[in-house]
Every structure is written in structure tokens, then in C-alpha cells.
Design a protein that fits this description.
This protein is 76% helix and 0% strand. It is mainly α. The protein has three domains: 215 residues, Growth Hormone, Chain: A; 225 residues, Growth Hormone, Chain: A; 71 residues. The longest helix is centred in the N-terminal third of the chain and has 36 residues.
């Protein structure tokens, strides 16, 4: 007797990809709002009178709620009530944070510098409280709809949406903030609101899918347990990789926030694009410049992700050849603008997250096939040190370009090796606890370095602040950025400890993903 297999919504490729776009738009908007202030530091100093410490405080306090367990609370809510409740609740918090920030930047609560700063900080705290949990909601949803289908491809594209949001936020905020910074803040907040509405649309599809499956997959089987956390932190390999997560990301994300201002002050990059640097689309330079990032995103997916879905070797090579030719033609078509972009602080710094869209799937594929995860983390940490040394001590612009490239490669390489390693070290039933605890510790590092770099920048330049604001001098970024070299050194040390612990505990971090580790995970 032959049974008829009932088709569900996720069996439809069109429906799966519609869901991916609806869900991934949340990553796009939240990463935009997370990073867009990086392109506005100088403008905020001029318009609002903020100093570097105040700018760093505003960015750093985004993480304050997560430092004290908001991610863990979000994980508990996610486990108990599922992605629908968690998505609406924490997505709503992100929207509220955006609205408060937009109102504050427009002078709604008062026009004094201290008042605007305090309310913008309140907005960032609400936004940060929702940010990390929203990311987990998106990842859980992608797994639900794509498991058994194009999961790796979907995860790569979803991550690409987030990186695209970071890049466009950094690059375009300065263009939008004319004549006032508030225009860029209002737009960033509006984008979050729109994508939360997309999430609401998705909810109707998700409810219908669960009815078709005759189950409530939205609710997870296992709740958060503090006993699991105790077991995790007593595991040397997990402890080392959690601390590595802190030291590495503390040297990357805070740098990206200050990178446009560093390039302007240290290497005299331009603050605004003028003349032929802008690209027009439908009469708008903002849309034209944004289209470049969208095209880079499309080409990155075509280069790094799609070929893995083509089984025939000859067809795969032909596909890559065609894409390469089209890419070269596109670059040639905008080469005049790109020459000016590489002299602009925000545009150049924005290429760091864009590069991760291309490199992360490539490195992830290498880890899957060859292993060497711990060794790659050591290599990534070395690249991190080179990047910050070249951008802090030396004053050569070409060395600066090499440093930015190294940072982009490291930013792709270490995560591609780190996150699969967590899955080898930690049993699947404890992965939620593991990621929640890692993100909590990571937010301590991010908050301290976001704030600390700004405070140190003011201290180092304390005698020149008035001249800098008058446009008669430049910030000296040497010491604040060189401090990040310490993070790279610590990352190397932790990577060696992780490699040594793996030899003793036998998790197989240096083995390919398909290889069987010599021992089981610790229970």
C-alpha cells in the first residue's frame, strides 16, 4: 500500500525563499542600526557637540542589558514560548529603541547636548536589549524552514543580509545625514519598523505551516538550565573558545565603529563624497550608492555560495567564469566612482563587512572539508594583530589598505572556524545555553571597548580637542587602536590553549566536519 506524502508550505522553494527574505530583513535592519553611527562620529561632534568619550559611551551602552543577562532571559523566553513571542517582544524592543533614538536626535526631548545624549543612550539600550535575541530568532527560523533543503545556502545568505546592513549603514549614513544627523537616525529606525512588519507577515505563514505539520514546532523541547551553564564553564575547551570570542570580537566591532573617523583623521580620507564619486539611480545619489552594495552582495553570493549547489564540475567552472566576467564588467563600469570611494572614510571602512559575505562561506567550506579550526583561529588572530599594527603605528596609506584587507579576512576566517567548533565541543541540547553565555560574555568585551576607545581617544588628544573641533587639527588614533593589538595577542594565546585542550579532550577541532572525533562531548 502506497502512502501519499502530504506537501507542506516549506516543500515549496518559492515559499521557503519568501520566508528567508522576510526573516533576514530583520538582520539587515538591526545590523544597519547597530553600525550606522560609525559613519556619523565627526558629524555628531559638529552638530551635537559630542566628544569621543560620549560617542563611545552611547555605542558601548548598547550592550549594557546583555552584559547582565538579557540574552539569557531572551533564551528562556525563546525556549518557553517560541520564536513568535520572542520575535515580537524583542523585535518590538528594537523598534522602541529606534524610535527613542530618532526622537532624541531630532531634539524632541530637548536640544541640550547632555539631554540628547542621555535619551539617545536610552534608545540604544532598548535596541541592544532586542538585538541579540532577534538574531537567534532568525537563525532558529531559517533552520525550521530549510532543514533538509538548502540550509547551508540559506544560512549564508541570511548572514549576508546582516553584513549588507552593516556595510550600507556605515557607508550611507553620512550621505543621508545632510543637512542634519537626525535624518540618518530616523531612516535607520524606520527600516527596523518596516522589517518588524515583515516579521508579522511571516507569522501568518508560520502558523499555517504548524497547522499543516499538526505540531507546534515553534516551542523548543528543552528549557534553559543553570546547571548546564555550570557544566559548560567547567569545560576547558568551552571556556577557552568563549574567551576567544570576547577577545576577537572586541578587536573587530569597536574598530569598525571608529574606522571611518580613523581614516579621515589619520590618513586624511574624505568625509563626504563629491562630484563623480556619487552614483545616480532614479535621480537619487543615496539609491545609486546603495545599489553598489546590493550588487556586491549579489556577486558575493554568486561567487561563494551558489557554486556549492552545482554538482557538475564543468558546469560549476563555467558558471564561475561567467560570473567573473560580468563582475569585471560591472567594476569597470563604476571604476571612476570606486577610485573616489577608496579615498572616503565611510565607504572604505564599509567594505570590511561586505568582504565577509564573500570570504566566510569559503572558509566555512574549508573547515568542513579540511578541518584545522583551531589552527585557523591562530592565523586569524595573527592577521588581526597585523591589521591593528599597520593602522595604528604606521602612516602609510597602502599599508592601511593591507591592514583593512587583513581585518576583513580575519573577520571571516575566525567566525567560520569558531562557531562550528562550538557545535563539536557542546552537546546539541546545550547549544542554546552555550551561545547565550558566549554572547553575554562577548557583550562585556564589546561594551568596554566601544566606550574605552572613545574615552582613551579624548584623553590622548586632551590638549587638542578645541583645535580638532575647529578643523585645525586631527585626532591621534595611534594608542587607542594599538590597544586592540593586545586583543589579538590574547586571541593567539587562547587559540593555542584551545588547540592543546582539544588534543587532551578529543573533540576533533582539527578534523573535517564529517570525521568522527576520538571521544564524545562531556556530559
Amino acid at each position: 500500500m502506497t502512502e501519499t506524502i502530504k506537501k507542506t508550505m516549506k516543500d515549496s522553494a518559492a515559499m521557503r525563499w519568501l520566508v528567508l527574505i522576510l526573516i533576514s530583513s530583520l538582520l539587515f535592519s538591526t545590523y544597519w542600526f547597530q553600525d550606522f553611527y560609525g559613519g556619523l562620529k565627526g558629524l555628531m561632534e559638529i552638530e551635537y557637540g559630542f566628544n569621543s568619550e560620549q560617542f563611545g559611551r552611547m555605542i558601548g551602552l548598547t550592550t549594557i542589558a546583555n552584559m547582565f543577562g538579557m540574552i539569557i532571559v531572551g533564551g528562556i523566553i525563546l525556549d518557553k514560548w517560541g520564536v513568535r513571542v520572542a520575535g515580537l517582544l524583542f523585535g518590538g524592543m528594537a523598534v522602541l529603541g529606534g524610535v527613542i533614538s530618532a526622537l532624541a536626535s531630532s531634539g524632541f526631548f530637548g536640544t541640550e547636548s547632555s539631554t540628547m545624549l542621555n535619551w539617545m543612550i536610552v534608545g540604544r539600550i532598548f535596541f541592544g536589549s532586542g538585538l541579540e535575541v532577534v538574531c537567534v530568532v532568525v537563525n532558529r527560523t531559517v533552520v525550521k524552514w530549510f532543514k533538509g533543503y538548502e540550509l547551508a545556502l540559506a544560512m549564508a545568505i541570511s548572514m549576508g543580509f546582516g553584513r549588507l546592513g552593516s556595510a550600507m549603514g556605515i557607508a550611507l549614513s553620512g550621505d543621508i545625514a545632510v543637512p542634519h544627523v537626525s535624518a540618518a537616525v530616523v531612516l535607520a529606525a524606520t527600516i527596523i519598523g518596516i522589517t518588524v512588519l515583515f516579521f508579522v507577515i511571516y507569522l501568518f505563514l508560520d502558523i499555517k505551516l504548524d497547522r499543516q505539520l499538526k505540531s507546534d514546532d515553534d516551542v523548543a523541547a528543552d528549557d534553559f538550565k543553570f546547571s548546564d551553564l555550570i557544566k559548560l564553564i567547567s569545560n576547558k575547551s568551552f571556556l577557552y573558545i568563549a574567551l576567544l570570542c570576547v577577545s576577537f570580537y572586541a578587536a573587530v566591532f569597536p574598530f569598525i565603529a571608529y574606522a571611518p573617523d580613523l581614516l579621515i583623521n589619520k590618513f586624511q580620507f574624505t568625509r563626504e563624497l563629491i562630484g563623480e564619486g556619487n552614483i545616480m539611480l532614479f535621480g537619487s545619489t543615496t539609491l545609486g550608492n546603495a545599489s553598489v552594495y546590493v550588487m556586491f552582495f549579489v556577486f558575493a553570493i554568486l561567487f561563494a555560495v551558489v557554486p556549492g549547489k552545482i554538482a557538475n564540475k564543468l558546469q560549476r567552472k563555467a558558471f564561475l567564469a561567467i560570473v567573473f566576467v560580468v563582475f569585471i564588467a560591472y567594476i569597470y563600469g563604476i571604476h571612476t566612482q570606486l577610485q573616489l570611494w577608496f579615498q572616503n572614510g565611510a565607504k572604505t571602512a564599509s567594505l570590511i563587512p561586505v568582504g565577509t559575505i564573500l570570504f566566510t562561506p569559503i572558509f566555512g567550506n574549508f573547515v568542513d572539508k579540511k578541518g584545522k579550526a583551531a589552527s585557523l583561529m591562530i592565523l586569524g588572530s595573527l592577521l588581526l594583530i597585523f591589521a591593528h599594527v599597520s593602522l595604528s603605528i604606521f602612516n602609510n596609506v597602502y599599508l592601511a589598505y593591507m591592514g583593512l584587507l587583513s581585518l576583513g579576512v580575519a573577520f571571516s576566517l575566525v567566525p567560520a572556524a569558531m562557531w562550528p567548533s562550538v557545535a563539536k565541543i557542546v552537546d546539541e541540547k546545550r547549544l542554546g545555553t552555550a551561545f547565550a553565555s558566549m554572547f553575554t560574555i562577548q557583550n562585556w568585551g564589546l561594551g568596554l571597548f566601544f566606550w574605552g576607545i572613545g574615552a582613551l581617544l579624548d584623553y590622548v588628544n586632551r590638549g587638542d580637542i578645541e583645535a580638532i573641533r575647529a578643523g585645525e587639527a586631527y585626532y591621534d588614533y595611534t594608542i587607542p587602536i594599538f590597544i586592540l593589538v593586545i586583543c589579538g595577542v590574547i586571541s593567539i594565546f587562547l587559540s593555542f590553549l584551545l588547540k592543546k585542550a582539544d588534543r587532551n579532550q578529543g573533540y576533533g577541532l582539527e578534523l573535517p566536519s564529517s570525521a568522527v572525533a576520538p571521544c564524545n562531548r562531556e556530559e
